[in-house]
Amino acid sequence: MTHSRTTTVLASGAIAFALGLTGAPAALAEEAPAPMGSSAELRALPWPEYKEGDSAPQIAAASHLLRWTGHYKEKADEKFTKELTAAVKAFQADRHLPEDGVLGQETWGRLSGGAFGEVSLGMSGEHVKAIQYLLAHLHGAEVSVTGTYDEALRDAVREFQKSAGVAADGIVGPITWRALVSGGA
Question: Quick one: signal sequence residues (predicted)?
């Protein structure tokens, strides 16, 4: 190959490379920020913290989960009672967590992790009641707290998922659950 031909090939390659970079979308140049409601953003939401004397719909949901794990025998309620404190401490002891009786980050994480792989149509139990309770009492959905994951609950979950910006599949997995509890919609 001659010198001028080599120069022409190299110059052509340099021009093509330069045009390719300037024509590349900005997203390739740097990572675009995650959209609101993304999985990463929802995973990063802190769990709410509650202790004896507090009152909130999330406390009733936690009560349902503690009933599901066998640590709580009382009726699920929005009030954080001394009985609930004892149940939280028992759960914490069983999971080798600090026994402070507080529904905090680690306790919510362990309590939720045990219940929420994927909860979907046809399932039943206290963990389903926790979903129903939060949808009805915190997010304004028209669902009854029956403990059965029926079509009405699936539809309410889908609507919530749309508002939270996650895939609306009607299945409550860890991300949808986190959004329900932590206010991701």
Answer: 1-29
Radius of gyration of the chain (CA): 25
C-alpha–C-alpha distance, residues 73 and 69, integer Å? 10
Total tally of structural domains belonging to the chain: 1
CATH classification at residue 106: 1.10.101.10
> Per residue in 55-65, is it b (16+ CB within 10 Å) or e — as a string?
ebbbbbbbbbb
Range of the domain at 119: 45-182
Alpha carbon distance 71, 107 (integer Å): 13
Tens of pLDDT, residue by residue over 77-125, are: 999 999 999 999 999 999 999 999 999 999 999 999 877 778 889 999 9
Query: Which tokens go with 118?
Result: 């994927």
Q: What's the pTM?
A: 0.77
User: Tokens 């749309």 map to which residue?
Assistant: 162
SS3 state at 72: coil
Dist. CA 168–CA 132, nearest whole Å? 17
How many Cα atoms sit within 13 Å of 166 on the Cβ side? 24
